[in-house]
UniProtKB/TrEMBL annotation:
Residues of the full protein shown: 53 to 372 of 388
Reaction(s) catalysed (UniProt annotation): Endohydrolysis of (1->4)-beta-D-xylosidic linkages in xylans
Record-stated family: Belongs to the glycosyl hydrolase 10 (cellulase F) family.
Keyword flag 4Fe-4S: no
EC number: 3.2.1.8
Organism of derivation: Salinactinospora qingdaonensis
Enzyme class: hydrolase
Keyword set, alphabetical order: Carbohydrate metabolism, Glycosidase, Hydrolase, Polysaccharide degradation, Signal, Xylan degradation
Protein's name according to its UniProt entry: Beta-xylanase
Residue ranges of domain GH10 in the record: 16-319
Keyword Signal tagged: yes
């Protein structure tokens, strides 16, 4: 009843490469993905720019392949994501649509994508990163909120629920591990939506941590307050990055600290009844997004480039 997941490196984006991608071409990668996890999350392949590259064209190839892989291997899938400010196709961001057209575009997208995988997705990140660090809605950056107002968030949940009544529908964000302005904003919004009967079922924190910033000590308390609202909770994109020394190799001390962060996060989730899903954002440093997005940082996952298990791996294993 507990799900240990990994993001699936289906290629593209930070990997800056065309097919063949790790998921299809790296045998060792595939084998570990199959044997060590019972949940998978497409890292990019269900995002708008991949799955809906042109207004009248969807590309389900990789998303289908990942969902089929999961089914064959008895794994559940976390769908990611439907309403986000990032990784949207140009036709959408640069298009000149009326409000009515945009609403129709979002509804059709959700009905099509969620509908296609209906019954095969355990949890959907319906709305991703809708608040900024101060707890304000990203009403400039997020095309949907900007053009259609905050009410569109509830609609997205309603449409997703219509398209797949069995999927658990989540809010997902980073820097909401602990109790802070941003997680407070989710807490309030969630309560409002639940009062209105909107089908919101979960709150998840991504868990992109860094050993420089200290472990977010109120993680368990935060998960628990959402749990008490009756929501499922999850950690969905855990990695723990670090500033790499000149040599490019992390020190033993850094790796131990990292292992401690993974352990603390997993323990917090295990303590909270409705937290039964813990996903790491890739399991090998080889394909991690971290070095590409955070200059000078890396070694964020639980295995090295050559799939050697790091202290974090063993710590997770012994915590379970
Ligand atoms: C990242 C992917 O790992 C990269 O491949 C891509 O280039 C950018 O996005 N929060 C999220 C994820 O919700 O979708 C992001 O994934 C990491 C931060």
């Amino acid at each position: 009843g507990f799900f240990i997941g990994s993001a699936v490196a289906g290629g593209g984006h930070h990997l800056e490469q065309d097919y063949p991608d790790p998921f299809t071409s790296d045998k060792k990668y595939r084998k570990i993905l199959k044997k060590q996890f019972n949940s998978v999350s497409p890292e990019n392949q269900m995002k708008w720019e991949y799955i809906h590259p042109e207004r009248d064209r969807y590309d389900f190839e990789m998303a289908d392949a990942i969902v089929d892989f999961a089914a064959r291997n008895g794994q559940v899938v976390r769908g990611h994501t439907l309403l986000w400010h990032s990784q949207n196709p140009e036709w959408l961001e640069e298009g000149d649509f009326s409000q009515e057209e945009l609403r129709t575009i979002l509804r059709e997208h959700i009905m099509t994508v969620v509908g296609r995988y209906s019954g095969r997705i355990q949890q959907w990140d319906v709305a991703n990163e809708i608040f900024d660090g101060e707890g304000n809605l990203r009403s400039e950056e997020n095309i949907w909120i900007r053009e259609l107002g905050p009410g569109i968030i509830a609609d997205a949940f309603r449409w997703a629920h219509q398209a797949d009544p069995h999927a658990e529908l989540f809010f997902n964000d980073y820097n909401v591990e602990g109790v802070n302005a941003k997680s407070d904003a989710y807490y309030e919004l969630t309560q409002e939506l639940l009062d209105e009967g909107v089908p919101v079922h979960g709150f998840s924190t991504q868990g992109h941590l860094s050993i420089q910033y200290g472990f977010p000590g109120s993680l368990e308390e935060n998960l628990r307050r959402f749990d008490e609202l009756g929501l499922s909770t999850a950690i969905t994109e855990m990695d723990v990055r670090m500033e790499l020394p000149e040599s490019g190799e992390p020190t033993e001390e850094q790796l131990d600290k990292q292992a401690d962060y993974y352990q603390q996060a997993l323990s917090a989730c295990l303590e909270v009844a409705g937290c039964d899903s813990f996903t790491i954002w890739g399991f090998t440093d080889k394909y991690s997004w971290v070095p590409v997005f955070f200059e000078g940082q890396g070694s964020a996952t639980v295995m090295t480039d050559d799939f050697t298990r790091k202290p974090s791996y063993f710590e997770i294993q012994s915590t379970l």
